[in-house]
Automatic annotation (TrEMBL):
The Tryptophan synthase beta chain-like PALP domain, residue ranges: 64-389
Gene that encodes it: trpB
Matching CDD domains: Trp-synth_B
Organism of provenance: Paracoccus amoyensis
Function comment: The beta subunit is responsible for the synthesis of L-tryptophan from indole and L-serine.
Keyword Amino-acid biosynthesis: yes
One Gene Ontology cellular component annotation held by this UniProt entry: cytoplasm
Pathway(s) annotated for this protein in UniProt: Amino-acid biosynthesis; L-tryptophan biosynthesis; L-tryptophan from chorismate: step 5/5
Keyword Amino-acid biosynthesis belongs to the record: yes
UniProt-listed NCBIfam families: trpB
Protein known as: Tryptophan synthase beta chain
Pfam families: PALP (PF00291)
Length: 408
């Protein structure tokens, strides 16, 4: 497993963790030794068959992998064009792709003798996955979560607490993912000895973007294996939603060398990508800068101050994007588009009613783009979209937008 999951695409990052001009590690002196230790441990683990045997065992028996590749027949018929497949990562234990990566990082933390795990979370899915794996291995877990997200993702906050994690609401900024990540980094600097920072997406200082991508690449690797016996060829188009970009990198990475496969990342267009900046489409509406230890596209004002952005989806509400996406965009290997809150909500409802699947609001953005392009594509065109999370956590948000009161 190890060989084909890692190093299959050799162009990035370089030994400084840079993807072109993006990535790198912009961190304080205090953190540098920790980051170098982590990099060394990950390099050892990458080629250690025992590490990958343990990952495989947990992926199979704890997470429930491989997740199915499902032909969305009714949606395909309804749209009348391309043939639509969904990679069902919402069926994983804890309901999203986040656990694929958390398992890898927690196993590394234990190899490094760390006993306290910290994490940031937006939608709460990464927090739930981290709390879950910490409970499984008896580790202390502290999750930083923006106060706004604590409110809009209440079921996940309760889940984390049930699993024994301490959830720390973050009130700075607009109380979303960026602010949670700031506080997690602050915690890490002050607790360097026993603490491991488990980052939930392909962002942060090197080696996180490459390491998280490698752990999530199981998604694309399975798609490759699953589509061949079904269709006898690779998909024509891959589509995934992007917050920081981990589920998307996980789907895309094993296909990067297959130049005939079109790759589309979908950012959160919020209320529309324009000067009001009420969106989280960093590639479409931002420019390069430095945040959370790496250089990438960011939403910022003329002075370089980070803007808060907006998305209906807590998991996409991040003003940056993983550096590898920034690079794939610049070199033209992947395309990036945006979908508004309204379009995502419509896709959410259509998915519930045509496929009997309640999707999270994050993959609803990917689905909305599928809905946009599928009708004009030929019937033998194969689209695979990543259904990276289930929608239970979002029913209160959706109800509110539909004007339905389900709280009382
Ligand atoms: C279900 C789901 N999908 C997507 C995301 C966005 O993260 P990423 O872009 O790293 O996959 C999140 C983040 O919380 C999520 O919960």
């Amino acid at each position: 497993m190890a060989d084909d999951l890692v190093n299959s695409y050799k162009t990035g990052p370089d030994d400084q963790g840079r993807f072109g001009i993006y990535g790198g590690r912009f961190v304080s002196e205090t953190l540098m030794p920790l980051i170098l230790d982590l990099e060394a441990e990950y390099e050892r683990a990458k080629t250690d068959p025992e590490f990958w045997a343990q990952m495989d065992d947990l992926w199979t028996h704890y997470v429930g992998r491989p997740s199915p590749l499902y032909y969305a027949e009714r949606l395909t018929e309804r749209l009348g064009g391309a043939k639509i497949y969904m990679k069902r990562d919402e069926l994983n234990h804890t309901g999203a792709h986040k656990i694929n990566n958390v398992l890898g990082q927690i196993l590394l933390a234990m190899r490094m003798g760390k006993t306290r795990i910290i994490a940031e979370t937006g939608a709460g899915q990464h927090g739930v996955a981290t709390a879950t794996v910490c409970a499984r291995f008896g580790l202390k877990c502290v999750v930083y979560m923006g106060a706004t997200d604590v409110e809009r993702q209440a079921p996940n906050v309760f889940r984390m607490r049930l699993l024994g994690a301490e959830v720390v609401p973050v009130t700075s900024g607009r109380g979303t993912l960026k602010d949670a990540m700031n506080d997690a980094l602050r915690d890490w600097v002050t607790n360097v000895r026993d603490t491991f920072y488990c980052i939930g997406t392909v962002a942060g200082p090197h080696p996180y973007p490459a390491m998280v991508r490698d752990f999530q690449s199981i998604i694309g690797k399975e798609v490759k294996e699953q589509i061949m016996p079904r269709e006898g060829r690779l998909p024509d188009t891959l589509i995934a939603a992007i917050g920081g970009g981990s589920n998307a990198m996980g789907l895309f990475y094993p296909f990067l060398d297959d130049k005939e496969v079109r790759i589309i990342g979908v950012e959160a267009g919020g209320h529309g990508v324009d000067d009001r900046m009420e969106h989280c489409a960093s590639l479409s509406g931002g420019r390069p800068g430095v945040l959370h230890g790496n250089r990438t596209y960011l939403l910022q004002d003329a002075d370089g101050q980070i803007l808060e952005g907006h998305s209906i989806s807590a998991g996409l509400d991040y003003p940056g994007i993983g550096p590898e996406h920034a690079w794939l965009n610049d070199i033209g290997r992947a395309e990036y588009v945006s979908i508004t809150d309204k379009e995502a909500l419509a896709a959410f409802q259509l998915c519930c009613q045509t496929e009997g699947i309640i999707p999270a609001l994050e993959p609803s953005h990917a689905l909305a783009h599928v809905i946009k392009i599928a009708p004009d594509l030929p019937k033998d065109h194969l689209i695979v979209m990543n259904m990276c999370g289930r929608g239970d956590k979002d029913i209160f948000t959706v109800a509110k937008h539909l004007g339905v009161d389900i709280q009382t």
